[in-house]
Write a structure and sequence with these properties.
The chain contains ten helices and two strands; from the N terminus they run E-E-H-H-H-H-H-H-H-H-H-H. A two-stranded antiparallel sheet has the order 1-2. It starts with a strand and ends in an 11-residue tail after the last helix. InterPro entries: DUF5677. Keywords: Plasmid.
Length: 267
């Protein structure tokens, strides 16, 4: 047994969480290696810029997960894990998608968010310019119809994330990304949107203001870290195949790493 900030925690459970943290760091290092070996070999293109940018974003997200794990912030890790799934799926999808999808991806934030900001500024003003609100609404609707399938489901692509994952899997002959969407992305919904399930640990901590670090909590942490690592491994596998890197053994090594391989800050 080991101490988890005042609570006795089963050593095997804590060890499992430590192992996932070690794998996380190994996958981050592997992504950096893949980036360095590939960035100098390929001519610049928008698609590859999006791919390599996604690699760096996922590495940064992994670092955030590491910091959060040291503070037992399980729900926050699950939320970031959901984002990582989307980044990984989009990175792969955009390598094969039609040019118009690339355009939608590049223009979505600029077009939609700028119009939202303009509309909010006008709504908060005391004297809106006559007719401008209607014009902005019409423009926002035009953009919405162009780049968003439904008003209540804002996204840059005409394809859902499940469809994007299935498309990427079909081209790369791998079912892994669709699996990520069906499991980790779906699981992250609760933490991302603050539903009751994601609130229960905190409701249980109303007296102490601190979520107890019990065996169950360490189990939840290990599961959240496993999900993040699965996404990072998926990206590594995709890059290894797409960029012809021949790093299969390095990927397998990272996936098999144990808690005894390196130190970590998990109790």
């Amino acid at each position: 047994m080991t101490e988890g900030r005042g609570v006795v925690v089963d050593q095997d459970i804590a060890k499992r969480a430590r192992a996932h943290l070690i794998r996380l760091e190994l996958f981050r290092e592997l992504l950096a290696r893949m980036y360095r070996e590939s960035i100098v070999q390929y001519e610049f293109s928008v698609r590859l810029a999006l791919l390599f940018g996604s690699v760096l974003k996922v590495r940064q997200a992994g670092l955030s997960v590491k910091v959060l794990a040291e503070q037992m912030c399980v729900e926050e890790i699950v939320t970031i894990g959901r984002t990582i799934v989307e980044v990984v799926v989009n990175a792969a999808y955009l390598q094969y998608a039609e040019d118009i999808e690339i355009d939608r991806y590049l223009q979505f934030d600029k077009e939609f968010i700028s119009r939202q900001n303009e509309f909010l500024q006008l709504q908060s003003g005391t004297r809106p310019v006559p007719g401008i609100v209607q014009k902005l609404k019409a423009n926002a609707l035009r953009v919405s119809m162009k780049i968003m399938p439904k008003d209540d489901d804002p996204r840059w692509s005409t394809q859902s994330i499940a469809q994007r994952a299935a498309f990427a899997d079909k081209v790369s002959e791998s079912p892994i990304m669709a699996l990520l969407v069906k499991t980790l992305h779906a699981r992250g919904h609760s933490a991302s949107h603050g539903t009751f399930q994601s609130m229960t640990p905190f409701i249980s901590a109303l007296e102490t203001m601190v979520v107890a670090e019990t065996d169950d909590r360490f189990d939840e942490l290990a599961e959240a870290l496993f999900g993040v690592n699965l996404s990072l491994m998926t990206l590594c596998l995709y890059l290894n195949n797409f960029l012809n890197l021949d790093l299969d053994e390095a990927i397998h090594h990272a996936a098999r790493a144990s808690a005894d391989d390196r130190g970590s800050h998990i109790h």
